[in-house]
Amino acid sequence: MTLLREEIRRSGYELADAIFGEAGAMSHILLACEGEQKEKYLCPALRAEKLSCFALTEPNVGSDARSIETRAVQDGDVFILNGRKHFISNAPYADFVIVFAVTDKVNRGITCFLVDKGTPGFSLGGIHKNMGGGDRLGELIFEDCRVPAGNVLGKVDEGLLLALKRVGEGRLRLAAFFIGMADKCLQLALDYAKQRVQFGKLIAQYQIRESGMVKLHSSEMLCRAADKALQIHGGMGYMKECPIEGIYRKARASRIGEGTSEIQRLQLARRLLNDGPPNSFLE
Question: Which domains does the chain have, with CATH numbers?
Answer without folding.
Answer: 2-169 (2.40.110.10), 208-282 (1.20.140.10)
